[in-house]
Amino acid sequence: MNRRNKESIKAHIYKLDEITFQMSLDSKTAVVVSNASIKNQVITSITHIHTHDSPAIKTIHYTINVMSTEAKLFTIRCGIN
Q1: Each residue of 20-50: b (16+ CB within 10 Å) or e?
Q2: What whole-number distance in Å separates Cα of residue 65 and Cα of residue 61?
Q3: Fewer Cβ in 10 A, N or C end of the chain?
Q4: What contacts 24+ positions apart, CB below 8 Å, involve 7-11?
Q5: CB 33 within 8 A of CB 48
Q6: Measuring CA to CA, which residue among 9, 1, 6, 80 is closest to residue 43?
Q7: Which of 26, 51, 47 shows the shortest CA–CA distance to 36?
Q8: Tens place of pLDDT for every residue, the chain, 81 residues?
C-alpha cells in the first residue's frame, strides 16, 4: 500500500470495511486490532478485540526501561513492521 496515495488509502479502508462487515455476520470470527509505540524507553501496546456478540475489549500493556536494541530484536522476532 502506498500511504501517500489517497486512492490507495481509500481502497485499503474499503477492504477493511468489507472484512469488518463479513466478521459481523459470522459468530466464529473475531477482529483484533493492535498498535504499539516506544517513547522514552516505555513500550505501550494497545489491543482492541471485537467478536460477533460482545462489545470491543481494550487491553493496554506498558513495559518500562526497554532499550531500543531490545525493542528492535523483539519486532524482528515477532515479525512486526
Answers
A1: eeebeeeeeeebeeeebebeeeebeeeeeeb
A2: 14
A3: C
A4: none
A5: yes
A6: 80
A7: 47
A8: 566 778 888 888 898 888 877 777 777 778 888 888 877 777 788 888 887 777 778 888 777 776 667 667 766 766 665
33 and 47 Cβ atoms separated by less than 8 Å? yes
Count of CB atoms situated within 10 Å of the CB of 81: 3
Specify the DSSP class assigned to residue 40: T
Length of the chain: 81
What is the value of pTM for the model shown? 0.53
What is the model's pLDDT at position 46? Answer: 86
Cell digits for 74? Answer: 523483539
pLDDT of residue 1: 57
- Grid coordinates given for 67: 532499550
Going by their DSSP bridges, the two strands 30-39 and 42-51 should be labelled as antiparallel
